[in-house]
Amino acid sequence: MSKFKINIGKPDPSESEMAQYKNFDYVYKPYQESQTGSSYGRYLNGSTPKFLSILIGTTVILIGSYLINKLMTPKVEQPVQIETTITTPFVNPPIENVNVAFQEFEVDVVQGGTFTYLSGSKITIPVNAFINGNGNPILGKVTMKYREFHDHAEIFASGITMEYDSAGLVSDFESAGMMEIIAFQNNTPVYIAKNKKVDIEMISNNNESRFNLYYLDTSQRKWVYKGKDQIIQRPEDRMDIAQELPQSVLKESDIELPLPIQIPIINEPIKPKTKNKNRFTFIFQVDPKAFPEIAVYDSVEWEYADVGDNFDPQGLYDITWQDVKLIKQEDNTYIVQLTHKNRKESHKVFPVYSGKDLEKAESKYKLKYKEYLKALDKKEELEKQRKEEYEKKRADIEEKEKERIAYLKKQAELRRQQVKWANAQTTMVSTVSRVFSIMTFGTWNCDSRVQRPQGIKVTASFKTINNEKLTLTNVYLIDKKINAIFPIHEIFSFNPNAENYIVGLVYPNKLAYFSPKDFDRIDGYKLKKVGLNNFTFTMHTTEKPISSVDEIKEIIGKL
């Protein structure tokens, strides 16, 4: 009889079952629990327990059984299961469409240049500094986008984490200025070429040297230390607020809207009219250039259209007229104007023909009329073409005008922000530029690591002033004197001697806040300095949704 019983038809063990028996601690634990006073060290010091050899034999049986079952059991295809993980974006602005706006500027790749941000910061781009995603140099113009974050409101709205993880030790950043720069060509990202760098002179409110330079690596989801920046003193007139916009932009479009090109008028030939023998006619020469419709015919006579009872044709011949003018009317009749000293006469006349002259005139008329119709068709086609060209030019000019107006509006808004930013900095101790070079586009921060506030520790909950439970997201504790925002979880600590306030988001876009004065009132609760306190913060909330970073600044500024 076989020493071992092998069940050939038994189903394959599951992955969890196999993992279970590959875990030494799993099979050893029951034995360890049955032996009082035993320890791993007892056996690691030399003696080998008897049960270990039994365990090895059992493991061989299990593996052998599994292999035989695997070989003799028909293979059944199992559906492929794909696990998907939805990851929150590393940079996740808390309020949709509320963020610090980028300032755009255009760079000619072969020229490079230095550009000034609304705060007065300078960005210097070297020549031939860009490559595409394939690593190939690019030419033409590149659109740069640049923005800065200098205060609590801007950092809060950005959604950029200020937590720094160094070997598992998490701390927070106090910022002396943070900026983001990206670049595109035809809406496609471009990158800084190898051995090239972009120089940044970022204005800062803090002149202390304790700050380091960090780059936000969004792929690794962490800040990366990049060394130190250089501090240079800024002149008092650091921002040329009164700088005029380029004259080429301020003036109206230099492309004037042309008038449609006029096609020469084509005169319709006048159909010859038979002479009326009962009416008075006369003959005089006309200028063929002035009256081409008449000049094509020979032997034209002029017949009076209006003759009253007092009309005396002989009287016309008794006077030597000083001036004779012929004026064409819309109905293909003419007015003849006769002038002698102070005497002026006007008579309505029309050309007439008789005899063989009439036959010749009618024959010429037929030919001329055919030519007229052809010329008319050609004229209409040309007019249509010219009109389309005109409309296209007008559309192009209108588009350029829209772009010009949009540019002026953007510059006006940037100028407004520049003045506002300058006015907000009037109370700072000193203004410096923090100078550094980057070889990668993205977010860069001049930071100093700070310890999270200590003092009173609380388990926090939140409610409205109407005592309704309040659920907040993106909640931060902020000390007015430190340019840092400390994320609040259920348990956190605060320094009762600091000028604290709390700001958070009531989904989706209302702001909740707990002011420094509210913190001052907490003293009455006599929270213990050691141990954990349960505390419910009564939050103020905005009535209207937040629609801009300026609104956040205004609210925070009044706390």
User: Low-confidence parts lasting 5 or more residues at pLDDT below 50?
Assistant: 1-11, 13-71, 76-82, 237-255, 426-430
Provide mean pLDDT, rounded.
Answer: 78
Give the end-to-end Cα distance, rounded to a whole number of Å. Answer: 89 Å
In DSSP terms (H or I, runs of 4 or more residues), the helix count works out at 11
What is the subunit organization of this protein?
A: single chain
Largest sheet: 8 strands, antiparallel
| Global outline | elongated
Radius of gyration: 47 Å
Structural class comes to alpha+beta
| Strand elements, count | 27
What fraction of the residues are assigned to beta strands by DSSP?
Answer: 25-35%
Q: Provide the helix percentage.
A: 25-40%
Structure characteristics:
559 residues; disordered N terminus; alpha+beta; eight-stranded antiparallel sheet; seven-stranded mixed sheet
Structure commentary:
With 559 residues, the protein is an alpha+beta fold. It has eleven helices and 27 strands. Among the domains are: 17-71; 103-234 and 431-438; 276-353, no CATH class; 452-558, Immunoglobulin-like (Sandwich). It has helices at 15-21, 24-34, 40-44, 50-72, 152-158, 247-250, 292-295, 313-317, 355-424, 516-521, 549-557, and strands spanning 103-108, 113-116, 122-125, 130-131, 141-149, 163-166, 169-185, 188-189, 191-192, 198-204, 212-217, 222-225, 230-233, 281-282, 301-304, 323-328, 334-340, 343-352, 432-438, 442-450, 456-464, 473-479, 486-487, 491-494, 500-506, 510-514, 532-541. The strands form five sheets. Strands 1, 5, 6, 7, 8, 11, 12 and 20 form an eight-stranded antiparallel sheet that branches. Helix 5 (152-158) packs across helix 11 (549-557). The protein is elongated. 19% of the residues are buried.
